[in-house]
Specification:
single chain, alpha+beta, Creatine Amidinohydrolase, 2 domains, five-stranded antiparallel sheet, four-stranded antiparallel sheet
Length: about 325
């Protein structure tokens, strides 16, 4: 990759990093989760990018994939979505520029009280140790082993059922996964070597829990994030009477706006105001639920669950987007 195409990836990386730095430096006790999330997405748009996925804010034992919905309903086990002194917060920001994606994340302690210093440092150093190994031809299991060693040496467990991921144009999770633990050379999911020219999101997670595992939070759509699968043609679905014309119109709205990148429920929900301007909130919500169910049934849409540590440990994470050149890794999300 070279020329204008590579420049778009670098531009996305620059916006992603500026957003992460600006928002994380402004976070403090008393702020709502929603205000942080909305500020992040607004900052991205004001600085030349678009969100590649909804900003996610994951607090304490929540590991990943939570964003707010339009009703501001807290996730399972959370009473109020307000930042408190001592909270361990993962802020995950994705940006795309004409489909070229940058993905980065940081972990901070609200109030900087020093209660999570070692865990935060271990997450950052695990990410950096992984990246140092990412030269063309390096077996993937060596990348994962480097991340795990840092976590174990610092007294934490690596999260073993989360991994980094390859990035392609308009494709956030493209094929190859990046291990964040010592998976060994024979692991079916991480065979092969680091390829020259690939672009990867490198994001080791660690936990104070003993299991090193995350689990889905209830309900199934607890993340409030959806994605168009790209596997269903709307015209054909209507012809086969799997989708009514109004549902097809809504599906087209969604696909035109977000392509196959993840989107927030709160972004798409207001689209119902166009065909049903006089309906009340209860009617809109019922129609939205029916629409989403139908689009999931025909596999036009998929949803995500928010993730938390399986045994209640606090979770740390750091992430960069990396371009693999013949000379080694180029970090795309540097200041």
């Amino acid at each position: 990759m070279e020329g204008p195409e590579l420049k778009r990836w670098r531009n996305a990386g620059a916006v992603a990093r500026r957003t992460l730095n600006h928002i994380s430096e402004s976070m403090e006790a008393g702020m709502t989760w929603h205000s942080v999330i909305e500020s992040s997405e607004r900052y991205i748009r004001r600085h030349g990018g678009n969100p590649a996925f909804p900003c996610t804010l994951s607090v304490n034992n929540i590991a990943a994939h939570f964003t707010t919905d339009h009703t501001l309903t807290p996730p399972e086990g959370v009473e109020e979505m307000i930042l408190h002194k001592g909270d361990l917060v993962k802020l995950d920001i994705g940006v795309h520029v004409k489909g070229a994606i940058a993905d980065n994340a940081i972990t901070i302690e609200i109030g900087n009280g020093g209660n999570h210093t070692d865990q935060i440092r271990a997450a950052k150093e695990a990410r950096d140790a992984s990246i140092e190994k990412m030269h063309p031809g390096t077996p993937w299991h060596e990348v994962g082993a480097a991340a795990e060693q840092v976590a174990i040496d610092a007294g934490f467990q690596p999260i073993r059922n989360l991994s980094g991921h390859q990035l392609e144009k308009f494709n956030l999770h493209a094929g190859v996964s990046v291990p964040s633990h010592a998976c060994g050379p024979n692991h079916q999911g991480y065979r092969g070597v680091v390829p020259s020219g690939g672009i990867f999101a490198v994001e080791p997670f660690n936990t104070t829990g003993s299991s090193g595992m995350v689990e889905n939070m209830s309900p199934r759509n607890s993340s409030n994030i959806y994605r168009v699968t790209g596997n269903v043609e709307i015209r054909r679905a209507v012809a086969k009477k799997k989708l009514r014309p109004l549902g097809a119109t809504m599906a087209r709205y969604i696909e035109e706006r977000y392509n196959t990148l993840p989107f927030a429920e709160r972004w798409a929900y207001p689209l119902l105001g166009k065909p049903f301007p006089d309906d009340d909130e209860e009617s809109h919500q019922r129609k939205w639920n029916n629409l989403v169910k139908k689009l999931q049934d025909i596999r036009f849409l998929e949803t995500y669950a928010a993730l938390r540590c399986a045994d209640g440990g606090t979770v740390g994470q750091y992430e960069h987007t990396v371009h693999i050149t013949d000379g080694g890794p180029e970090i795309m999300t540097l200041p």
